Amino acid sequence: xxxxxxxxxxxxxxxxxxxxxxxxxxxxxxxxxxxxxxxxxxxxxxxxxxxxxxxxxxxxxxxxxxxxxxxxxxxxxxxxxxxxxxxxxxxxxxxxxxxxxxxxxxxxxxxxxxxxxxxxxxxxxxxxxxxxxxxxxxxxxxxxxxxxxxxxxxxxxxxxxxxxxxxxxxxxxxxxxxxxxxxxxxxxxxxxxxxxxxxxxxxxxxxxxxxxxxxxx
Length: 217
Hints:
This protein is of the alpha+beta class. It has a single domain, classed as 3-Layer(aba) Sandwich (L-fuculose-1-phosphate Aldolase), CATH 3.40.225.10. Strand 3 and strand 4 form a beta hairpin. It has helices spanning 4-19, 77-86, 99-106, 116-122, 142-147, 167-190, 198-210; strands at 29-33, 40-42, 58-60, 66-68, 92-95, 128-131, 152-156, 159-164. The protein is 39% helix and 15% strand. Helix 4 runs antiparallel to helix 6 (167-190) and helix 4 (116-122) packs across helix 7 (198-210). The protein is globular and about 55 Å long.
């Protein structure tokens, strides 16, 4: 079995999605690229993560040609590879159906930068696309365009996608986005929320990723 470590990591990440209430049953997707080979490891389509082993993960190249695996990959593999092709620094994609973030996709409303934690991980609002079926000609391109240089996008009437250099980053963004959407929803029942400004969001993102924690100043 090739890429055993990455396959294990992809499955472990997928197993965390239900733990954080981001998916249920066989929902959601986890996808990661191996920087050395350029191969992509992705969860198979329509199967409950609890029933899977690392060797059940599907390996393809960036053109979606099967390299190894006995199951069909995620039906949206063309989109996951589309993000990585457009942003070579990205190696991981997580797609969930988390309820609060998905609610914003249903009303076609972007999620503003509402907390410092969201600023740390996104640095800008999370935009939403129109509804796209997997057979739509723009399915693999429009979400990439809408996300731009950001780190997440909402698929209209569907749910959020988060990306990162690593699986850890993509997962933390998925959790952070859902919590921000939840906080924003609650805040709107109290009064009018005040968003972080664009300048503040960019500064917070830069500080968190370049100088926060154990990084050398």
